[in-house]
Amino acid sequence: MPASALARQQLELDILPPLQTRDEVIGRYRQVREISRQISDGLRKLVPRSAIVRHARKLDLTFGRIMLLDSMEQMAFLYDLAIYTAPPDRTRAIDRYARTARFETGSDDARVFEAMRNARFTACMVKRRHEIAGLVMGDVLRRTEFWLVDEGLEQTLADGDTLVTRIFAPDAFGVTCGVAMPVDFGIMTNVFYEVLPQLNHHTIEQICQDRRFAETIYRTAMAYGVMDEIGLRDPLASES
């Protein structure tokens, strides 16, 4: 996301439409989440198994050609990499999907999809509860704040908790692309020790968006055993 867009979103933390209530925000969040879930279903169908295996290999989750997953939750992180990242000489799956997807111009589906295409990877910390709903998060590297709405994370995260996730923002608040992984100082120190020599001429934004940054965090955190702490939960599914 361009710096101007980030600044505008940060400004919206302080200048909110006067009629917003928690019910309105959560209702809108659920609409966005449902649309993004449908889009994600289509995106996953576009990802070949070879791409999933390739990303599993980068995360040390393979033995030969066999994937060794401790839990099915790990698949979500493989899909995250396969959909939202790509080497410089390849096209991201989400951009390929844009060529075939038929969203009506100006529709909510088109708005959410375009926001997903511009999703940003972030290492962030819970600063405080948002006055209406969700959380105010501090982006550790970009040194900005953003409004995150996620019913599951709001219930489980405490102030000061840190995590990495991928965020898209079709409205004033951000929504995760489906994955969130807890991290701590030890994990991030090891990540920077490994990845910064490869990215030392990159800007902060380029580092955050580089596929190697997410890969290294996911691999390091999984080696630390953080998957034992993760329970990916869809609030919409639990209410049905």
Explain what this protein looks like in three dimensions.
- With 240 residues, this protein is of the alpha+beta class.
- The protein has one domain.
- Helices cover 48% and strands 16% of the residues.
- The chain contains 11 helices and 7 strands.
- A 5-stranded antiparallel β-sheet has the order 5-4-3-6-7. A two-stranded antiparallel ribbon has the order 1-2.
- The two termini are 34 Å apart.
- Mean pLDDT is 89; it is low at 9-16 and 232-240.
Order of helices and strands: HHHEEHHHEEEHEEHHHH
Pairing-aware structural class of the strands and helices?
A: alpha+beta
Mean pLDDT: 89
What distance separates the N and C termini? 34 Å
Helical percentage: 40-55%
C-alpha-based Rg, rounded: 17 Å
The number of helical segments is 11
State which percent range the strand residues make up.
15-25%
How many domains would you count in the coordinates? 1
Sheet with the most strands, sense and barrel status: 5 strands, antiparallel
In terms of per-residue confidence, which ranges show pLDDT below 50 for 5 or more consecutive residues? 9-16, 232-240
Q: Note the overall shape.
A: globular
Q: What strand order characterises the main sheet?
A: 5-4-3-6-7
Number of strands: 7
Describe the secondary structure blueprint for this structure.
Elements: H1 3-11, H2 22-46, H3 49-58, E1 62-63, E2 66-67, H4 73-84, H5 93-100, H6 108-117, E3 120-129, E4 135-139, E5 144-148, H7 151-156, E6 162-168, E7 175-182, H8 185-195, H9 204-209, H10 211-223, H11 235-239
Antiparallel strand pairs: 1-2, 3-4, 3-6, 4-5, 6-7
Helix pairs in contact: 2-6, 3-4, 8-10
